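lol forgot to send this yesterday, sorry. struct tokens for the thing we talked abt
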């Protein structure tokens, strides 16, 4: 009920100040998970509060804005997003589960993964917008860190347990907690949907703050945001997940700057901190080493390269049923007893999902998306952080699944660096303003 009341307050506030309400919504999304629903009646597609508010803000924006196609022409991800939308829509039309069943998932993906990002690009433009958003996100991440420490100490997550009671149809409640996983131990997820996503979200904040501080030395970063970034690092370990470590390791190339004395000093401080806190890292050493050594991987459990190859073979076998457009959304529910579908397990690579759901057309659209993310856009805007952080995402998403990752937060960071790159020569603005 509390979550719904806050959502209603945001809608009311948007009637007076749409932009500020939207910025608050972007930070509120950090706490919105699938179990927080508006409608969860059996036989009707689940309507989460997150999706409901996303629909509201996108629809209102489209209603208010004139010359929408002209605005879309300036959006950096216009071509890959259009390619994705076409691929998704075609697969939905010919979905094996039926158009009426798959269309709800298509609408959800269209609004949350594509249209919301475009609206963010159009609304978050001025320096004051970014300062407010950055400070708000910092407070949110600080709260998630505090709760992550609490979760680690108590080995429990009462918030997740409470959120599961908010789903009227209990059979549709999602529980991703890992309180007794053999080998790996307890995995913290804080307020997020999943431990893996929690770790990636914390890692993304670390990359965001450290890149701003060490590479660009912007006064946007203060002592509090640096403190929160440091607090995120133990939380990443608490998730006991490999994906966040891979993401953080690759993404850290974005802020390495040996010409910056602060960076050199920070490296020495971190080394001292690692020595002092060696007992903490020892608990997670097997999980860290399992990234590089298969013997440790057997100790901590989870998927390995052989299992990934088996999933790939299963994905190709499933794809053969509809190679051009894939089987569409929700195919696994219809074919849950199929031996190949069962072998897909959790579709632990973005490409396994693309192969099965969207087929060859999907592979082409996602290849375009990856090319724009890692090559065309970073080169066009001459942004090294955009390249590295995008590279970190695509490698991580290709190696494993990323449940619980805040996709809008990822694009907040990416769009920030794009705006910065095209505006740093403009006097009086840190970021571009075309209003």
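and heres what i got for the seq, position by position
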């Amino acid at each position: 009920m509390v979550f719904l009341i806050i959502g209603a307050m945001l809608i009311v506030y948007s009637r007076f100040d749409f932009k500020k309400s939207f910025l608050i919504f972007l930070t509120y999304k950090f706490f919105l998970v699938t179990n927080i629903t508006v409608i969860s009646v059996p036989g009707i597609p689940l309507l989460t509060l997150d999706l409901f508010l996303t629909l509201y803000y996108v629809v209102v924006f489209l209603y208010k804005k004139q010359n929408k196609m002209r605005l879309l022409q300036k959006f950096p991800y216009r071509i890959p997003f259009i390619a994705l939308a076409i691929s998704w829509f075609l697969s939905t039309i010919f979905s094996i589960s039926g158009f009426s069943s798959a269309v709800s998932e298509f609408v959800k993906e269209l609004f949350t993964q594509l249209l919301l990002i475009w609206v963010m690009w159009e609304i978050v433009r001025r320096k004051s917008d970014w300062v407010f958003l950055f400070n708000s996100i910092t407070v949110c991440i600080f709260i998630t860190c505090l709760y992550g420490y609490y979760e680690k100490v108590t080995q429990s997550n009462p918030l997740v347990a409470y959120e599961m009671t908010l789903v009227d149809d209990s059979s549709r409640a999602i529980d991703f907690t890992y309180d007794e996983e053999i080998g790996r131990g307890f995995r913290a997820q804080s307020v997020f949907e999943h431990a893996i996503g929690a770790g990636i979200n914390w890692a993304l904040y670390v990359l965001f703050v450290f890149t701003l501080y060490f590479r660009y030395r912007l006064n946007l970063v203060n002592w509090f945001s640096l403190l929160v970034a440091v607090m995120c690092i133990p939380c990443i370990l608490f998730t006991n997940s490999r994906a966040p470590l891979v993401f953080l390791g690759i993404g850290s190339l974005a802020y390495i700057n040996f010409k910056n004395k602060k960076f050199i000093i920070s490296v020495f401080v971190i080394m001292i901190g690692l020595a002092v806190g060696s007992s903490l890292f020892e608990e997670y050493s097997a999980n860290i080493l399992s990234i590089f050594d298969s013997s440790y991987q057997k100790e901590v459990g989870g998927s390995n390269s052989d299992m990934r190859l088996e999933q790939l073979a299963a994905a190709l076998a499933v794809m053969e049923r509809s190679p051009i457009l894939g089987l569409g959304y929700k195919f696994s529910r219809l074919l849950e007893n199929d031996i190949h579908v069962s072998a897909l397990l959790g579709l632990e690579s973005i490409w396994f999902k693309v192969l099965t759901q969207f087929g060859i057309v999907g592979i082409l659209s996602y290849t375009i998306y990856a090319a724009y993310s890692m090559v065309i856009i970073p080169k066009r805007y001459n942004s090294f952080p955009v390249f590295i952080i995008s590279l970190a995402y695509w490698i991580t998403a290709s190696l494993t699944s990323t449940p619980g990752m805040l996709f809008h937060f990822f694009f907040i960071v990416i769009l920030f660096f794009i705006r910065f790159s095209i505006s740093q020569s403009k006097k009086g603005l840190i970021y571009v303003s075309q209003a």
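The CA atoms of residues 37 and 48 lie 4 Å apart. anyway ping me if u want another try
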